[in-house]
Amino acid sequence: MPDRTTCELAHLYFNPKTHKDGIPVRPIESTIHAAITKISKFLDKILRPVFDDKCKDTTIIDGASLITELSKYNKKEETLDILMTFLHAHGYRKVKGISIDTIKKLASIILKDNVFAYGKKIYKQTAGGAMGSSLTLTLANIFMSKWQKNIVEEQTKTGEFYGRYIDDIFMTWNRSEEELIKLLDDLNTWHPNIKLDYKIGNSLPFLDVQLTNKNGILSTSVYHKPSAEPYVTPFISDHPRHVFSNIIKTSIEHAIRYSSTFEAFNYERRYIKLMLIYNDYPSTFIENELHKYFSEYISKSPFLSLIDDEQKYFLLRKQILGQPTPRQTQVAMSAALADIDNDPLDDDERQQPDTYKIKSEKKSQTVTKHSLLILRMKNVSKHANEIYIEYTIMHLKIHQQCTQNKLSATATVVQHKMN
Q: Is residue 37 situated within a structural domain?
């Protein structure tokens, strides 16, 4: 139960997206001391492992996981109902000892009783989930796993790649552009609150990866947003020495994972050195840390620990790609907990087969001669590019639209002044 002495009403604030034209904002609710926060965290803790396990074949964890999967490639009531369908389809009668009926009731509290304060007024959210609530992202992912089922099946039949990171989709296409446009127009009719923006091309950024399809050969490199500043923790800051060493190690390992060519790696290595020097890292410290890192994989000799040819680089990259990233390890550990202390259904109790898992065959890294495709969704989750939020207070019918002066957050609200 919430502690009445520390419980507080959630409040709304906005984070500007400086890399977007016009600098739109993302509305976020601070729910740290809200009454429903513990319920939200509890449900997320027991449901997220189920999603991480059952939908891992179509979920992009990070840029490194996208590169790994592509290497195998060749050529509100509704939300609650979908949550129940998802659990039942995967054979769950209970999750961590909690019946799915109880889970539905608890999730209903999170979605339907979200109240917060903003500008000396109280609002109740009537559509979607709060960005700032632990459960929102898991529910959005489960919702999208239902939405994408048909397109995943179609991509699998044709041997094409499909992967989703929250509300961004990356997929390949090997048919005509007319057929593609027809498919995208059709996708925009599947749900009234899900609309797709898309980019088609032979070279596109996705997350922090630049993917290029040149004559059917896929290459990858690190993508830097144009608005990104070359900033890391300054060397003159009061941090332990190992922090600076880890920054260099993480940066160079990131470059190795993402750079599919020796040329791309050398470009990124120069970028990293300039960034570090810009942040007051001594050149001798940078070189010593690079020698130390490379010597772990190539040679124990201090004179042979530089990457100076393609053969050394590809041997090193093969070793690095064989190791999971911290985020991949975290998701794998979460997925491993999916079936612990759960009560599965018998096979004959399931009403529908498991259609969420996609079987992938290992193939070469030669892709089709046609386009790469990125889809970005609106109004899907807490990370949507254009978020429309509807709020109301009890039975009041007064609506007012937020203006540009309220930081460009497009919202429909019903206002109620605080006493």
A: yes
